[in-house]
Amino acid sequence: MKRPLRDERGSATHVVGWAALVSFLLALLGIVAALAFSVHVKGHSMEPTVHQGDRLLVQFWKRGDLKRFDLVEARAGVAKTPVVKRVIGLPGDTVAIRFKDGKPVVTVMPAGSSTAYVVVNPRWSEQVGDRIAPCCNADGTAGTAATEVVVPADSYWLLGDNWGGSDDSRTYGFVKKADVGGVLNFRLQPLGAFGSVPNPARLVAAKN
């Protein structure tokens, strides 16, 4: 077998070296980009699904096509307070909150439907605390009666998974589309929890 010439071996080593360098730089660029387009969670309003200190990827390209139960970054209320919450009510949905046996019952009638559903989120019944005000006022905030309201065409109704420790639409009201920064369904840190953020919520047809 003919052995490669010294300059051929050197050339091959040179190419491999450059390829390794390019791969390293691309990986580094990917990490920097991921961290740049991410949010560092502050507070406990989404526990135990998301914890303080977690870093979540901001999928800003999905902000115009939010799905029910997406986790989102948004600016809420008059002061545009930064929040991380779950989408419960989409534009045109009819929403309300009542309490049964001291636990929250969130109902949603999707836009264009005549069927009411109960949002089943086991996190809520585990962490009710003293936040037992029904909903909603005309602006989507908690009130004094379980009154149905319609989510405006340009807005969303957001709730936290930590029912007893979340300032969400019950406090701030409906959140406008323009104030949603992106979807946060993917966790970057801690590395031990890297991957999709679990979604415990679902819709179940309400019993008459």
UniProtKB/TrEMBL annotation:
<feature type="transmembrane region" description="Helical">
    <location>
        <begin position="15"/>
        <end position="37"/>
    </location>
</feature>
<dbReference type="GO" id="GO:0006465">
    <property type="term" value="P:signal peptide processing"/>
</dbReference>
<keyword id="KW-0645">Protease</keyword>
<dbReference type="Pfam" id="PF10502">
    <property type="entry name" value="Peptidase_S26"/>
</dbReference>
<keyword id="KW-0812">Transmembrane</keyword>
<feature type="active site">
    <location>
        <position position="85"/>
    </location>
</feature>
<dbReference type="GO" id="GO:0005886">
    <property type="term" value="C:plasma membrane"/>
</dbReference>
<dbReference type="InterPro" id="IPR019533">
    <property type="entry name" value="Peptidase_S26"/>
</dbReference>
<dbReference type="InterPro" id="IPR000223">
    <property type="entry name" value="Pept_S26A_signal_pept_1"/>
</dbReference>
<keyword id="KW-1133">Transmembrane helix</keyword>
<dbReference type="InterPro" id="IPR036286">
    <property type="entry name" value="LexA/Signal_pep-like_sf"/>
</dbReference>
<comment type="similarity">
    <text>Belongs to the peptidase S26 family. IMP1 subfamily.</text>
</comment>
<feature type="active site">
    <location>
        <position position="45"/>
    </location>
</feature>
<dbReference type="InterPro" id="IPR019757">
    <property type="entry name" value="Pept_S26A_signal_pept_1_Lys-AS"/>
</dbReference>
<feature type="domain" description="Peptidase S26">
    <location>
        <begin position="20"/>
        <end position="187"/>
    </location>
</feature>
<dbReference type="InterPro" id="IPR052064">
    <property type="entry name" value="Mito_IMP1_subunit"/>
</dbReference>
<keyword id="KW-0378">Hydrolase</keyword>
<protein>
    <recommendedName>
        <fullName>Signal peptidase I</fullName>
        <ecNumber>3.4.21.89</ecNumber>
    </recommendedName>
</protein>
<dbReference type="GO" id="GO:0004252">
    <property type="term" value="F:serine-type endopeptidase activity"/>
</dbReference>
<keyword id="KW-0472">Membrane</keyword>
<dbReference type="GO" id="GO:0009003">
    <property type="term" value="F:signal peptidase activity"/>
</dbReference>
